[in-house]
Amino acid sequence: MSSPLASPKGQGLDPRQLFKVRLASGIGSTIEWYLSFAYISAAGLIFSTQYFGALGPNALIVSLGSVAASFIASPVGGVIAGHFGDRYGRKATLVGTLAVMGAASLGMGLLPTYDQIGVLAPVLLVIFRFMQGLSTGGEWAGAALMSVEHAPSTKRGAYGVFVQIGVPAGLVLSTGVFFLIQFLTSPEQFQSWGWRIPFFISVVLVLIGLKIRTSVSESPVFAEVRESHTEVRVPLKEALQHYSKHMFLAGGSFVANILAGYLMIGYLLSYASNALSMDPQPVLFVLMLAAVVWIISTVLGGQWSDRFGRKKTMIIGYALMGLWAVPMFLLVDTGSILAFAFAVFVLAVSLGVSYGPQSAMFAELFPPRIRYTAASLPYAVGGIIGGGFAPAISEWLLASTGTSLSIAVYLMGFVAISIACLFLLRDSYFQGFPDNSFKGTAAVRAVATHTAI
Predict the structure, then answer these.
(1) Which domains are assigned to the chain?
(2) Which residues have a Cβ under 8 Å from the Cβ of 136 and sit 6 or more positions away?
(3) Three-state DSSP class for 93?
(4) pLDDT digits (tens, 9 = 90+) for 215-235
(5) Considering only CA atoms, which of 139, 142, 296, 137 is closest in space to residue 219?
(6) Quick check: 414 pLDDT over 70?
(7) pLDDT score of 427
(8) pLDDT tens digits for 421-438?
């Protein structure tokens, strides 16, 4: 029996409930990425001296490399959250991921420095970053499914963007907070205690998010799986046995986007401030404006994917990204803030168009009873390969070659990988959810056929 909330024509939709679902999905993603961007900004501006300073010339590379702790933990978090999300429901799992995120935020904000407690300081910092990765690994897929599984079949891309815009929204919020704090404090005050304020703010946001998430209904698609008693005992096992190819290609389709995103949010601030000696405050402000452009283009990307298909929309975004890689760094290297702004604005457009359709595409690739697990792993593993080490690799490439164009080539290579993976995937939007799109058991195909998504 299909839930009216998931009906193709959208009949029986409760607008108030749908608003709460989209808000609950989007706020978790926003908080997740706000905290991630706060960490990345602090890694380039604070952690390299206050936590990793004992490493000398390698401190900045190691500090930026600590960003990867989250990505290493992400697949573990995806497996754990995916198991519970496919077995017991999306809603309860998402409450858990948000709670872990809040604990990591509080730990980072309160953590003493290396001068105060020695080597324990960087160790605990990486542990808190690892905890954040555990929550991140299960957050995106669950939030995406809650939004997409409530959507009418013709608007999954448009509904899915509420999760996707959490990335640029988190960037706007994070850079805005860092910009405001730097403006209101002296350099000494910011270095001493000002940088901790963004982490305390994220704790407040988590509490608000928890209140919203506990008030929404369960995904109607999972409710139908539960009603038909088709839950899988070990979702990971079935996902790997029958959908490994889909998962591999889905992860590959994501690597260029996460790499480009982490260049913009995790490296360009450090590069412009340290290598080009640009004033970090206007750079932060430009990055905040670029994130607004990213939000707009993400919404458009999701909507266009409902009209033209997920693959085509994402490939257009990636093509722009690849063509822009070299001109972007040439503009950035001028040291002009206007040239920097133009460079990152165009990058933001390519990011949004290639990222907007992702929630709907990943949801449509897998059957409901293993969807949480099967969607989490490609996102998490793609994040490790594409984004986890991107700031550190970029810094290493710059130091080794002496030119930022090596970073542009690095990005172009990953764009080629993502486009190739998209060509090998069937377009989930035009494909729908037919029996022959999966190689699993008859029971799985039956669930796929009789579920609204």
Answers:
(1) 10-450 (1.20.1250.20)
(2) 32, 36, 70, 73, 74, 77, 97, 101, 380, 383
(3) helix
(4) 777 777 877 877 777 777 888
(5) 142
(6) yes
(7) 65
(8) 999 987 655 444 333 333
